[in-house]
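During the reporting period the student researcher (J.K.) took over the structure-prediction task from the postdoctoral fellow and processed the backlog of single-chain submissions. One of the processed entries is reproduced below for the supervisory committee.
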Amino acid sequence: MTAPVVLVERPADGVGLVRINRPEARNALNLEVRRLIARNLTEMGEDDATRCIVLAGNEKSFAAGADIKEMAGAGTVDMLLRGTHKLWRAIAACPKPVIAAVNGFALGGGCELAMTCDIIIAGESARFGQPEVRIGIIPGGGGTQRLPRSVGKYKAMRYLLTGDLFSATEAFDMGLVSEIVPDAEVEKRAVEMARQIADLPPLAIQQAKEAVLRGMDAALDAGLAIETRASQILFSSQDQKEGMAAFIEKRKPRFRGK
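J.K. obtained the following structure tokens:
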């Protein structure tokens, strides 16, 4: 029996885990993998028991790119009908925080997948890149848009136009990676951080994520308006009352997501 290409661990302590499982193909993102990631992130995003999600690969590859064999003979209409752009949107639209645990290669679609996440924990040996130009195409999952927004135009152009790879240290220095840890500790650290987030009030976490994402491409005044409204809304939540009461009473709060 063929092993599933995506493995899922349902929430424990509020943390769900989605793992790409195509080691024979360095976790290349074929259409089935993309659909399953999108489906599971959508389901976890709607699940009250899930407060944070870790997206992982294996010790050698997070995801080494798109499955080239699957698309080599495709035409324009074929690519349109695949609808992968809709899957990328579904992944990026997950309302719960998503942490990418990156070991090994995160190339092409794998780098784009990591960039749809909210936090990237990388191993010391991790390698990133958008090498699509080397096979006659350009990134199609957000690479030309998210990379410049993460690292700036000139750094992004340097890698998008050459296809060169870059290290975890370079990614961290450019602002693409949140934290670097030893290779053997990547997933452990990602889960640890996810549990830390899961312990916090989920409504506040979701509003913080939404405010950041909606405000990034808006004018400052518009972004500040988004933040103000989100902050005000939270004062109607039970978690806000509990959090402030616990602070005043010097006890641990009990957040319920209400």
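The committee noted the following: The chain has two domains: 6-198, 202-249.
J.K. will present the remaining backlog at the next meeting.
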